[in-house]
Amino acid sequence: MLSIKWSNRAVKERSEILRYWVKRNGSPAYSEKIEAETDKAINVILENRYIGEKVKNRNNVRRLTVMHDYSIYYTVIP
């Protein structure tokens, strides 16, 4: 069974991004959209772990775009 393990850095950055948009917009709506799109992207990765494009010069690292300026970088561990 495949699983996702978030790095401490990823957890921190995600939290900071979501808080930024709540503060900037005065509403959690956009942050909720980012979270929903991230969840969709994670499900896509879980269905096909090789779907993200390979990141040049980074061994086993792949990137999947979530929204315009947001991507998930992940490593596939066989």
Can you put this structure into words, describing what you see?
With 78 residues, the protein is α+β, with helices and mostly antiparallel strands. 47% of the residues lie in helices and 19% in strands. The chain has helices at 8-25, 29-47, and strands at residues 53-54, 61-67, 70-75. The protein has a three-stranded antiparallel beta sheet with strand order 1-2-3, with helices on one face. A hairpin with a 6-residue loop joins β1 and β2. The longest helix is centred in the middle third of the chain and has 19 residues, at 29-47. It is elongated. The N and C termini lie close together (11 Å). The mean pLDDT is 93.
Write a concise synopsis of the structure shown.
With 78 residues, the protein is of the alpha+beta class.
